[in-house]
Amino acid sequence: MRYWIKRILLQSGEVVTECELRADQNLFNGPVPVVGDMVNVECRGRTFAAKVIWGHWPGRNHAPDMIVPLRVEEHGFDAAKAPERFPPRRKK
Fold first, then answer.
1. Tally of domains in the chain
2. Which residue(s) pair with 69 in the sheet?
3. Residue 78, class by beta-carbon neighbours within 10 Å (0-12 exposed, 13-18 middle, 19+ buried)?
């Protein structure tokens, strides 16, 4: 089976999408990691550990020819320290 890491949440709070990645970047053959597993990803010229946060849950089965899309967050990501992606709306 194959899986493709399509979205990467960096420690800075920035999200890298598949539009910024090469078509073959972070595309792997082998057992698909489940939510909570750690994987190594390549992004912006560096390789680092990341935790799967969306895409493949335990007990789920996929067709053998399917490419499973995953979303990950960089190891050490702290939501409390990351800048807000969507600031609260101003009240009128």
1. 1
2. 4
3. exposed
Residue 14, domain member (yes or no): yes
92 occurs within a structural domain: no
Q: Considering the domain boundaries, does residue 80 fall inside one? A: no
Please give the residue range of the domain that contains residue 13: 2-74
48-60: b (≥16 Cβ within 10 Å) or e:
bebbbeebbeeee
Q: How far apart are CA 55 and CA 70, in angstroms?
A: 5
The pairing of beta strand 27-29 with beta strand 15-16: unpaired
**What does the pLDDT look like over 2-40, one tens digit per residue?**
999 999 999 888 899 999 999 889 999 999 999 999 999
